[in-house]
Write a structure and sequence with these properties.
The chain has ten helices and two strands, in the order H-H-H-H-H-H-E-E-H-H-H-H. By secondary structure, the protein is an all-alpha fold. It has one domain (about 55-210): Tetracycline Repressor, domain 2.
Length: about 210
């Protein structure tokens, strides 16, 4: 993300924080901080496209913070996913005013444009790496037909956590911290080898020996 795009993202977040709502158009946003609409249009075609860049900036900052943590490289998949969420929430805290009014659901869009498209792509690339790491270390069980669904399940989990946080009124967001820990532990427990695999294998045995 170049310097100009970063500047526009910051201006946009400042706008939402001050006004308390999204601008109705690029022109309205440009007028607010004295930018020529034509100059703004050379970077973004719509407010939705600008918001996609906002979410891209959030996840890029998250990755930068994770990389700066020396212990992160030694984490297993479960620890990395926990670190991802807790770090992301720290990145979002200064921009809570924006997140509270942002569309955060499957297929979230403004005028047909998915504002989470860049965020989701980076997230899925990241979590696929975690899944691959978990399979290598035995933390995640590779299952026919199910392994390909792990990533989308984690994306749904991410949206759940973001929506939980934006509504959380507990002190220091303690309830969100608990929701993160419980949801991550549940997802990794379900991906690990367990009774489900024994049931599947027993069913396969019975089928082969009818």
């Amino acid at each position: 993300m170049n310097h100009t795009t970063n500047s526009l993202v910051k201006e946009y977040l400042n706008y939402v924080s001050e006004v308390g709502s999204r601008p109705g158009s690029l022109y309205q946003f440009a007028k607010h901080f004295g930018e020529e609409k034509e100059n703004l249009g050379s970077h973004f075609n719509s407010i939705a496209q600008l918001e996609a860049a906002v979410w891209q900036s959030f996840i890029e900052e998250n990755f930068e913070r994770l990389k700066a943590e020396p212990a992160y490289a030694e984490y297993v998949a479960r620890e990395r996913l926990l670190a991802f969420y807790f770090t992301l929430l720290e990145v979002l805290k200064p921009h809570r005013a924006y997140v509270k009014i942002a569309p955060l659901h499957l297929g979230a869009s403004i005028m047909g444009t998915d504002v989470l498209v860049l965020f989701k792509k980076a997230f899925l690339d990241y979590t696929q790496g975690l899944i691959n790491l978990g399979i290598e270390t035995g933390e995640v069980e590779q299952r026919a037909f199910l392994s390909d669904r792990y990533n989308e399940a984690l994306w749904a989990q991410c949206l759940f956590i973001l929506n939980f946080w934006k509504k959380d009124t507990s002190v220091d967001f303690q309830k969100t911290d608990e929701a993160v820990e419980r949801s991550v532990n549940l997802s990794l427990d379900l991906m690990a080898r367990g009774p489900l695999d024994s049931i599947i294998e027993f069913g396969q045995f019975l089928f082969k020996n009818r």
